[in-house]
Automatic annotation (TrEMBL):
Reaction(s) the record says it catalyses: 7,8-dihydroneopterin 3'-triphosphate = 7,8-dihydromonapterin 3'-triphosphate
GO molecular function terms listed in the Swiss-Prot or TrEMBL record: dihydroneopterin aldolase activity; dihydroneopterin triphosphate 2'-epimerase activity
Pfam family, one: FolB
GO biological process: folic acid-containing compound metabolic process
Keyword terms: Isomerase
Domain of life per record: Bacteria
This protein's name: Dihydroneopterin triphosphate 2'-epimerase
Domain Dihydroneopterin aldolase/epimerase as annotated: residue spans: 12-122
Lineage per the UniProt record: Bacteria, Pseudomonadati, Pseudomonadota, Gammaproteobacteria, Pseudomonadales
Organism from which the protein derives: Marinobacter santoriniensis NKSG1
């Protein structure tokens, strides 16, 4: 197939990564894990990945996902802002990432709300 598109930035979304962690400042949250729902969106230059069709030429979204799981699952955090910042930092450590946004929800953390989230983004 002739490659008529050339340069291509990909938008990668890791959707609804559901983990459990100690997250919060209330005693109940300090003593009990709760669900955190993580959504990551990023852009990178996928021209090489598209052209070569080889994982070595791509920004491996599985690698990023496993790093986030390793950092978050079962671990302890106070504020949602700090947890979101740390996950965003993991994503931005990958030099190929041009821009990234991370939103983390604490479902049912607030008595009368479906969920509450913090969203942070960064770019190079
Ligand atoms: N940039 C890209 N990165 C990755 C791609 C891709 O197409 N572009 N594809 C993959 C794998 O095909 C992925 O989709 C599935 O991988 P895997 O089954 O190993 O992911 P799991 O999280 O289920 O791995 P487990 O070890 O089974 O938990 C990867 N990256």
């Amino acid at each position: 197939m002739s490659d008529v598109i050339g340069h291509q930035n990909a938008r990668v979304r890791i959707k609804d990564l559901l983990l459990r962690a100690y997250i919060g400042i209330k005693e109940e949250e300090i003593n009990n894990q709760q669900d955190v729902l993580i959504n990551v969106e990023l852009t990178y230059d996928a021209s090489g990945a598209i052209h070569r069709n080889e994982i070595e030429a791509a920004l491996n979204y599985r690698t990023i996902t496993k790093q986030i799981i390793q950092h978050v699952d079962g671990n302890r955090f106070a504020l949602l802002e700090r947890l979101t910042h740390e996950v965003l930092s993991i994503v931005m450590e990958h030099e190929a990432v041009q821009w990234a946004q991370v939103e983390i929800d604490k479902p049912h953390a607030l008595r009368y709300a479906e969920s509450v989230s913090v969203c942070l983004e960064a770019h190079r």
